[in-house]
Amino acid sequence: MKPHRFAVLLAGSLVAVAAAGVAAEVDPKADLEAFQSFFKNKFPSLPWEEYANGSYALDPAWRANWELIEEFPPYEVAVAKGEEMWEVPFANGTTYADCFGEPGVQHHYPRWDKEQGQVVTLALAINQCREAHGEKPLKYKKGAIVDLLAYMAYESRGNTIDVKVPEDDPRALEAYKKGRDFYYTRRGQLNFACAHCHMGMAGRKLRTESMSPALGQTTGWPVYRSKWGAIGTLHRRYSGCNKQVRAKPFKAQGEEYRNLEYFHTYLSNGLPLNGPAARK
Amino acid sequence: MKTKVWMVLLGGCLAAGLAQAANQAKFDAAYAAAVEAQQKAASVSGEWRDIAKFLKQAEELAKAGEFDAAVKLAKKAERQGHSGYEQMVSQQGKVGPEPFLR
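The joint structure predicted for all components is written out below.
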């Protein structure tokens, strides 16, 4: 056998063995079942759709406050600006509709893209669309991209989260596992994993804050946060969470947070989208 | 008499210069060790939030001649770098939902 053919076969075998290893380690369907059962047992009287409302589903005082805020939603301006962005053509005469068809497509994201070999979030897809049509990409955490995301989220309201981890591509399972590992890994000087606050502590107070359950956390993005005084993205929030436990945050739309979003959103499969939302 | 005064002054200046150089060298070593620890933590995605801030503050202190405080801060950054690395390495292959589902 020629050396290069042997090398190709060896490399192929190693990839297959590694993929089989990941497959043996992780079972997304079993994860989903265990995760959602955990919360149903923890809050047995909470209706399923209520998980989409975060800690407002559990704290009556904060809920009353939130309902008042929703009478004049602070994200409305962003939705209007986003609608304008959707309709105004790019320099080459095309629009976002040429990439996405319709604006209400948030329930198709994040998704595993076999050709690209990576998790594609809606924000990433927006910038890929722009670049494909000769436009500059937008900044990820705040600004114009959030307006467009707000409009697309608004148009996606009521659609059900249905993230898929395709079984025919081991790389997808690996991305899922990376997101899963991120979620359960202690990090920062405070030595907290995401799960410490949003599984064990869900519904309980940490100082003055009521901890939201991990189930349903991805339904309402982008979010107008009173703390920010602005509307921002899920990756901006991830960054804030990491800083709160005194870990160095990762880049918005970098591989770490996209994989995290993939896993995190998968866990909320079956819940309705209700973004954009308002939170404290 | 004048010669003696000049010699004393020159000696004083030399001593001060040597002390400054020694302090700078001590700081440079502490800073380099901290940067190495920071990079080691980053290599396993385990860098903590404040390391870069401590390093920047340490540099500013050293520039202002406050070497003791600068070295102290660089050592703090180095400790955090090692801790962040250990934190990540100690969890590799062991994390999962099981402890949180109980």
